[in-house]
Amino acid sequence: MKKWILALTIASGVLVLGACSQSSSDTVVQSKAGNITKDELYNAMKAKYGKQALQELVYEKVLSKKYTVTDKELNAKVADLKNQLGSNFNAALAQYGYKDENDLKKQMKLGMLQEKAAMKNVTVTDKELKDAYAKFQPQIRASHILVADLKTAQDIENQLKSGAKFEDLAKKYSTDPGSKDKGGDLGWFGTGVMDPAFEKAAYALKLNEISQPVKTQYGYHIIQKTGEKQKQSLAQMKSQLEEQVKSSKLTNDVVNSTMQKELKDAGVKIDDKDLKDALNPQTTQAPTTGQ
Predict the structure, then answer these.
(1) pLDDT confidence tier of residue 287, bands split at 50, 70 and 90
(2) Within the chain, where are the H helices?
C-alpha cells in the first residue's frame, strides 16, 4: 500500500512541460514513444497493489469511526519495538519496506485499531487472570558489555573484580553501538523482549550484582542488574493482565471474523468490479502491532 500511494501522489503532482495531444491533467509521462496517462498508471497500480491498498483504506475509515488509537498508545508501541530491536531498528524498517518511523506508525496504527476491535469479543476467565499474574515478572533495568569471544569477556570480568568501573569498560570494549556510549545501559525491559539466555541471566541477578559471561546469539555478555520494580497486586494489575491475555488469544480467524462484522455493520460495498473481492476473509490480515 505504501509504495502505491507514494507513487500515485508523485504522479498526480507531475508538471508536464511542452505541448501534447492530451491535457496536462491527464498526462504523467511524455516520451517520443508515447505518453503515459494517469488512467494507465492507476490501472497498472490497481492491478498490482489495488486489493491490499483498498483493504487498508477501508479498514482504517471504518474502524476509525468506532475506535481510537492515541498518540501516547502508538508511541508506546514504537518505543517497545525500539527497545526490542535496539541499534537494529532502522535496519529493520528498511528491511520491511518502511521509509521512516512515521511510515511504520501509520501501518502500526491500523493494526492497533484491528486489535481493539477484535479484543472486545475476547473473554478472560478468573483462572486465566490468576495464571497470568503468577507468571508475570515486573520490569528490571540492566547494563551490559557485549564482546565477541569468551576470552575477552573473562578479561573484563577480572577487571571488574579488581575494581574497574562497569561504565568505563562498557565504553571501551562493548560492541553494542546502542548502549556502549551510555555505559552499557539498556534501560527498563520486561520478559519476552531480550534474548532468552540474556533475560534468564539478568532476572536471576540480585540488584547491582554482575554476572559471569553469558553466551547468546550475539556474543558474550557481562550483565549488571541496576534496577528492579516491585510486583503490584492482582487487583492493581487486572486491566493490564486482561489486555495481555486477550491479546495472546487473538488469531487470524478472530480478527477476520471481527473485520467482516465491522464491514457489514458499516454497510461497505465495493463498486469497482476488479476489486470486488478485496475484502474477502482470505485477503484480510492479523494485527500488525509489533507485538
Answers:
(1) very low
(2) 2-12, 38-64, 71-85, 89-95, 101-119, 126-135, 150-161, 166-173, 196-204, 234-249, 252-265
Structural domains in the chain (count): 3
**CB-side neighbour CA atoms (13 Å) of 88:** 8
Q: Is residue 235 part of a domain?
A: no
Q: Which domain holds residue 163?
A: 139-228
d(C-alpha 122, C-alpha 145), whole Å: 42
Place of cell 541496576: 226
Residue 32 shares a structural domain with residue 90: no
With b for 16 or more beta-carbon neighbours within 10 A and e for fewer, the 259-278 pattern comes to beebbeeeeeeeeeeeeeeb
On the question of pLDDT at 186 being above 80, the answer is yes
CATH of the domain at 156: 3.10.50.40
Q: Give percent of the chain with pLDDT exceeding 90.
A: 55
Q: Are residues 132 and 143 in the same domain?
A: no
Q: Taking Cα atoms as reference points, which of 220, 85, 194, 197 lies closest to residue 141?
A: 194
DSSP assignment of 150-165: HHHHHHHHHHHHTT--
Q: Is the pLDDT of residue 241 over 60?
A: yes
Residue among 167, 170, 174, 177 at smallest CA distance from 89: 177
In a domain, 236, yes or no: no
Q: Distance (Å, rounded) from C-alpha 132 to C-alpha 130?
A: 5
Return the SS3 of 118.
Answer: helix
